[in-house]
Specification:
YbaB/EbfC family nucleoid-associated protein; YbaB/EbfC; YbaB-like_sf; 4 helices; alpha+beta; 12% strand
Amino acid sequence: MFQGAIDELAEEYNRRLRQVQETYSKLDELEVIAQSADGMVTAKVGPGGQVRGIKLDPRVYRKLSPSELSAAIMDQIGSATAQIAARTEELVSPLMPEGLSYEAAFGPGSGLEAFMPKPVEPQS
């Protein structure tokens, strides 16, 4: 009976380990390409929002001022980064412990407190 419980725990552990390994493999492969509506600016973003490339149509220098070009580049980086963030949340959320949301753990203002249990008040 005890051995059966140990075997079940080992199977569950191995299943979850495979799930985590598969998820991290998918995270490593994430890549998004965002292109402006006019096709002048393209940004490629990888895992964690890492910018992997910027491609500019040669005509962009004649059509956009430096400040417009800068804004167009930032817009495409922002778009691609947002898509990476959404895909990351989609992949990681099923791995989160029960009762802990992805947003609470990794969203704005998150911190170590999200992973810690609530303080226990002494019973006097």
